[in-house]
Amino acid sequence: MICAVRSFALTNATAKCVLPVINSARQVLCGFREPSLGNRTTFSRQGSTMSAEGGGAEAKLAAIPDVEIDPDGKFKYILIRCHGPGDVSKDIVRGFAWAEYHADIYDRVAPGIEALGFDCECIGGGRIQHSRSQRNILVFGYSMGFGQADHSITVEKLKKQFPDYSSITFNNEGY
In principle, which of 20, 95, 159, 167 could form an S-S bond with 31, CB 3.0–4.6 Å? Predict the structure, then answer.
């Protein structure tokens, strides 16, 4: 079953994304859950308090790798924004061939970020065509659940990770 739309609740000052936690393949991916304080998969674009406060927060955030993708193939990817205290944030790219859905990547990555005391949100997704032997990467498409990522941000992160590649580009075509 393909999820066409994720559940989003919008208010004047807040955009919240409510992501279901998938415990088995039989659960419905588009299930809506009411946000609650105990639900760590509810994220807000407003400021929040978190346990990563203090001088070490920026160092912890910097220690999160900018890019983790599979070495070859065509696969789904997501762009995640990690939030530290105040205005501190960082975008990271994660892409893996094992993911059937973009949400599968997020569900696996988010707990690790949260364990460091940071909040995070998926700000979009797409696909990556990675050829290590030809030293090129193409970023394209969109996520049906999270929308299209800003591929230009993704490409800049990939260029820093793979400086010896001959071509790292994007287009907004295809799924």
Answer: 20
